[in-house]
Design goal:
The complex is a heterodimer of chains A (about 450) and B (about 100). Chain A has about 450 residues and is an alpha+beta fold. Helices cover about 40% and strands about 20% of the residues of chain A. Chain B has a domain at about 35-90. The chains are: A alpha+beta (about 450), B mainly alpha (about 100).
Chain lengths: ~450, ~100
């Protein structure tokens, strides 16, 4: 080993990894991937355009600090529900990883899906794998310039459309669509549109498999959810080796060869540029392209399919494979528990929230023949409509509210703090911390909130 | 002694540096993510307009503008932390001048 040279000279600043030119595939899993891409991208590009009752059904309205999500309106203080939803998404990911490996990476990850679309555009403009490689190696001819320009045009247009759609989840998209052609956008809108467009263009057009290899945290920790019973894509070494080329009608068993004809098709289709025959690798995003292409080759050779297939570590080692196992149940129960919790929280959401805090500066006040206690009342309107709230007190003889004197108007999403003063006549008072109830009634809907609190009556008020 | 592949010995010096692009990515991208989370959590409790009135009432900052400014401040802070971590982790041998 020639490690003696001073390292300061031998460290290259930037090693350009060899560009991967994935070959196009067709087959069962490719079809699944294309269907998944259509569904997911369809949702992304169409959802912001769907209005129900004049309201965009998914809109994270940052400007007005309210989130509209499938008929629900959430306010910033409800955002913990969103974090529960995220926790649920994470658990779902764990569950499917334990069950079927990197399903997410191969079929659903935005990185994979957008890369797929960008690759398709590359194929449309620059041709098949071999043509693309030749084009990149060749000199800059008029044809190369035309093809590359066409690709860039498609990429940039699509990326800008993606950035626009992304903004449309945060700003009403129909309004945005009217303003874009006249460049009537705010600074933040303009910035995020181009930022997201650029991120899409860079990630799906150039970085591609490097995002999975160097940037993705899931790729690094997914092995924690894996065990010997998780589905992985694997090459059947026992059946394939020793690999070697042969004529289609050759008696390869006589020649001492396995089923792998070493055609390299599985390597050429791999979007991360690995050789699946080297075993399970962290770079593998389980897109199953190698399964599709190898099945095609096996069909041509007249060999049984499945030299590269979805299997488990146990199955490959001739051990029994179990799909039902404790890990699956743990993830599943945690998932169901969380889903129930979110359901309960969402259905039990009160549109009017009321809190009563005792005023700590004075325990009581005597005004004429009345004994008063002071509080601070906080009201929050979590509905989509204006509220008119009246405040009452009950639980003590002749108790009444001195302040607020009028109905309180609350706009949607508004929180208001008002001083609350409650009084009882001096003569009826029983000394001690008495329990009483404050009721807040919304005149518009007739909804009532009751808050139990304490009323202090001293032994000797005077 | 058991052979551990990550163990550094005299005949097995520090591994070479990662390519520049990877280093930049490893600093900017996790800090981007952390800044996004911090921004969301921060603005659950704080309305940018209220914050503006408390700090720079004479400036015309919209809610969106407030979110954006805060995000980049958070990103600056988190990426500075990531950068510092990388700085501390750099093996000295990469910078030592060859002796005599």
């Amino acid at each position: 080993m020639s490690q003696t040279a001073p390292e300061t000279e031998s460290i290259p600043l930037y090693i350009k990894p060899p560009k991967v030119y994935p070959r196009e595939t067709s087959g069962r899993f490719s079809r699944l991937r294309i269907i998944a891409a259509w569904v997911l991208l369809g949702l992304f590009y169409l959802l912001p355009w769907i209005n129900v009752g004049g309201q965009q059904i998914v809109l994270f309205d940052l400007v007005n600090r309210q989130f509209h999500f499938l008929g629900l309106t959430l306010w910033p203080q409800d955002l913990f529900i969103l974090s529960l939803l995220l926790a649920m998404a994470a658990l779902t990911l764990f569950f499917f990883t334990a069950l079927a490996g990197r399903l997410w990476c191969g079929y659903a990850c935005p990185q994979t899906v957008w890369t797929e679309v960008f690759l398709w555009m590359e194929r449309v403009t620059e041709g098949s794998r071999n043509k693309r490689m030749k084009l990149d190696k060749g000199p800059w001819t008029r044809q190369k310039l035309a093809r590359k320009s066409a690709k860039q045009f498609l990429w940039i247009t699509f990326a800008l459309w993606t950035g626009f759609t992304f903004i449309g989840f945060f700003v009403p998209i129909r309004d945005l669509a009217v303003r874009v052609p006249t460049f009537d956008l705010g600074g933040a809108e303009t910035f995020w549109l181009f930022f997201y467009a650029f991120a899409t263009y860079g990630n799906a057009g150039y970085l591609r498999e490097q995002v999975c290899k160097y940037m993705c945290p899931y790729a690094r920790f997914q092995s924690a959810m894996f065990d010997d019973n998780s589905l992985v894509i694997s090459y059947d070494v026992a059946r394939g080796e020793p690999r070697g080329s042969r004529r289609r009608d050759a008696d390869y068993k006589e020649m001492g060869l396995g089923d792998c004809i070493d055609c390299m098709a599985c390597v050429h289709v791999c979007p991360t540029g690995i050789d699946i025959r080297d075993g399970l690798q962290i770079e593998c995003i389980a897109c199953a392209s190698c399964i599709d292409v190898c099945d095609e080759v096996m069909d041509k050779m007249g060999y049984p399919r499945g030299l590269v297939r979805y299997t488990t570590e146990n199955a490959l080692n001739d051990k029994p494979s179990r799909i039902i196992r404790p890990r699956i149940f743990i993830y599943l129960f945690a998932l169901l528990g969380l889903a129930t919790l979110i359901g309960v929280i969402l259905t039990g959401r009160e549109p009017l929230i009321a809190d009563v805090l005792r005023d700590r500066s004075a325990l009581y006040r005597v005004i004429g023949s009345d004994l008063e206690n002071s509080y601070s009342l906080r009201l929050t309107n979590r509905s989509d409509a204006r509220m008119l709230v009246t405040v009452d007190a009950a639980g003590l003889p002749d108790i009444r509210v001195v302040e607020p004197t009028r109905e309180l108007a609350l706009e949607p999403g508004q929180t208001t703090d008002v001083p609350l003063t409650v009084a009882v006549p001096l003569i009826v008072a029983e000394p001690g911390m008495q329990v009483m109830t404050i009721t807040a009634t919304d005149a518009e809907t007739g909804r009532v909130r009751e808050i139990e609190t304490r009323f202090f009556i001293p032994q000797n008020p005077n | 002694m058991t052979d551990r592949p990550h163990q550094l010995t005299a005949d097995r010096p520090d591994p070479p540096s990662r390519p520049l692009i990877q280093r930049i990515g490893a600093i900017l991208w996790p800090s981007f993510f952390a800044a996004a989370v911090a921004t969301v959590v921060f603005f659950i409790f704080v309305d940018p307009l209220v914050l503006r009135d408390m700090t720079f009432p004479e400036m015309n900052i919209s809610r969106q503008g407030g979110y954006t400014i805060a995000f980049f401040m958070f990103w600056a802070a988190t990426s500075a932390s990531s950068l510092f971590t990388w700085f501390l982790l750099r093996p000295a041998s990469h910078f030592r001048k060859p002796q005599g």
